[in-house]
Amino acid sequence: MAAAAKAGSTRLAYFDDMGAIRSTATVISLHQEEGGRRAVVLDATIFHPQGGGQPADTGLISSAGARFLVDDARAKDGVVFHYGRFEDAAGDGRTPPELKEGQGVTLEINAERRSLNSRLHSAGHLLDSCMTNLGLNLEPGKGYHFPDGPSVEYKGVIPADQLQDKKTQLEKQANELISKGAKVLVSVFPYDEAAKLCGGALPSYISQDSTPRIVKFGDYPGCPCGGTHVADVADIGNLKVTGIRVKKGVTKVSYSVSP
Ligand SMILES: [Zn+2]
Question: What domain of life is recorded for the organism (predicted)?
Answer without folding.
Answer: Eukaryota
